[in-house]
Design a protein that fits this description.
heterodimer, A: 129 residues, alpha/beta, 5-stranded parallel β-sheet, 5 strands, 41% helix, globular, B: 156 residues, alpha+beta, 7-stranded antiparallel β-sheet
Chain lengths: 129, 156
Amino acid sequence: MKALIVDDSRAMRMMIKRILTELGFDTAEAGDGREALESLRTGDLPDVALVDVSMPVMDGLQLVSALRSNPDTRRITIMMVTSESEPAQIVRALANGAHEYLMKPFTPEAMAGKLAVLGLLPAEPVEAW
Amino acid sequence: VSDNTLPQTAVVESIVTDVFAGQLGVLDPPQRADAAAADGPEVVATISVRGMWEGAVTLGCTSACARTVAGLMFGAAAAQLSNDDVADATGELVNIVGGNVKSVMPGPSRLSLPLVSLDGGTAPEPSGPVLTLPMRWRGQILTVEVTSAPIGRAPS
C-alpha cells in the first residue's frame, strides 16, 4: 500500500510516517496541496492520501476538491487528519469527497483503526504500540 | 460559554494533557504548576482564532523544553534538531492545542497558521480576558495562555 502524507508541518509528517511505516505502507510527503498535486503528476498514485486541512498555498479542502475533480486521482481514498473539529468543516470535507476524518491529537491505534475502517488494513485489532 | 469568554482552566489542562499523552505518546504529561516560570519564555508559539469566538492560544517554554517536544515529534535526539525543526514542532503543538481549544468555544471560527518565536519573543498584547495556565513537565514550566479578544480585535 502507498500513502501520501500532506501536512505543512514536517514534524507531523514524520509522526504520521512512523505510524504508516510500522503498518507496512510506503509513504510520500507533501507540504501543501499544490505540492501534493505536483507529486501526483510525477509519481505513482497512492492508495490513500492523509490530508491536513489548514495549510498555506493550497489548503486541504481545496486539495480534496482538486483530487475528486480529476479522473486520474478521483479514486484515491482520502482521510483528513486535522485539529479542525467543527462539524461544518467535517461536513464540508466529507461533502467534497473525503472518506474519513481523524482529529489531532490521535494515537497510532486510532489512525490504524480508521485505516482499517477504510479497508486499507486487516480488520483485526492492531496491537498496542 | 459565550462570545468573548474563556474556556475553563480544567478543560485547557485536559487538552494539553491529552495532546502530550496521545500525540506525543508520553507517559508523564504536563501537570498543573503552582506558580508561573520565574523567567519569560524563550520559545513562544501562538495561533489565532477568528470567527464567532475570537482569541489566541499561546504556548511559552524554555528552549530545552521546546527541543524535547521536537525530539519526540521528529523521533530524533534533541541535539540533532535544527532551529527550524524546533519551530516547526512547536508550531504544530500550538496548532493542535489551539484547534482543541477552539472546539470548546462558540463556532464557527477558523484557525490561523501558527507563529513561532525562538528568541524570547513575547505573546501578542492581550486586548481581552486572559487565562494563564502554568504546567510543569520534566522539570520545566510550560505556560499556556488563552486570550479572548473582542470581536474584530483578534491578534493577527
